[in-house]
């Protein structure tokens, strides 16, 4: 069985930006994922959001000179061949995305609803995210800290 999880933008931002308050925690989670040989899936919409957040953040924090370095670090971590392109699915899933957002009273944003639906369709049941919103999605387990890695991927009997 392939152990895989989708990564959310807040984890990716924290990994790339050493000034992020969650940087150390994100690094620890990422290290745990590597130790457990979890394959990380990077959706294009997550990269899109990550780049936008990094750009806005450095501007708001008056450190725009750091943006090229942060962007380079992101590109180093996630090369184009690692990206799973899900945005073309928006047209097909649009009404389902809207319905999922409606079911969660708007708390779940558009990209998060897209991510959740693509995960369900792809048989991926784990997301790495600091967002509480994903905890509302019944078909997803959320990794928010290092302890969650082992509980999200328990050792199967045939592996022991």
Structural description of this entry:
By secondary structure, the chain is α/β, with parallel strands linked by helices. The radius of gyration is 16 Å and the shape is globular. A five-stranded parallel sheet has the order 3-2-1-4-5. The chain has one domain: 5'-nuclease (Rossmann fold), CATH 3.40.50.1010. It contains seven helices and five strands; from the N terminus they run βααβααβααββα. Helix 1 crosses helix 2, helix 1 crosses helix 3 and helix 3 packs antiparallel against helix 4. The two termini are 14 Å apart.
The major beta sheet can be summarized as: 5 strands, parallel
Mean pLDDT: 94
Radius of gyration: 16 Å
CATH class term: Alpha Beta
Q: Give the low-pLDDT segments.
A: none
Count of extended strands? 5
* Count of runs of 4 or more consecutive helical residues: 7
Query: Which term fits the overall shape?
Result: globular
CATH fold node name: Rossmann fold
| Percent of residues in beta strands | 5-15%
Order of helices and strands: EHHEHHEHHEEH
Distance between the termini: 14 Å
Percent of residues in helical segments? Answer: 40-55%
Strand order of the largest sheet: 3-2-1-4-5
Class by SSE composition: alpha/beta
Tally of individual domains: 1
CATH architecture: 3-Layer(aba) Sandwich
CATH superfamily: 5'-nuclease
């Amino acid at each position: 069985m392939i152990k895989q999880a989708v990564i959310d933008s807040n984890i990716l931002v924290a990994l790339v930006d050493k000034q992020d308050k969650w940087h150390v925690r994100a690094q620890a989670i990422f290290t745990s994922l590597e130790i457990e040989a979890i394959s990380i899936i990077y959706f294009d919409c997550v990269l899109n959001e990550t780049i936008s957040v990094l750009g806005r953040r450095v501007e708001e924090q008056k450190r725009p000179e750091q943006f090229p370095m942060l962007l380079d670090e992101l590109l180093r971590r996630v090369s184009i061949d690692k990206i799973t392109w899900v945005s073309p699915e928006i047209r097909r899933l649009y009404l389902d995305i809207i319905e999922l957002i409606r079911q969660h009273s708007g708390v779940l944003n558009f990209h998060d609803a897209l991510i959740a639906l693509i995960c369900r369709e792809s048989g991926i049941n784990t997301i790495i995210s600091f967002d509480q919103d994903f905890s509302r999605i019944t078909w997803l387990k959320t990794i928010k800290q290092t302890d969650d890695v082992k509980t999200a991927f328990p050792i199967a009997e045939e592996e022991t």
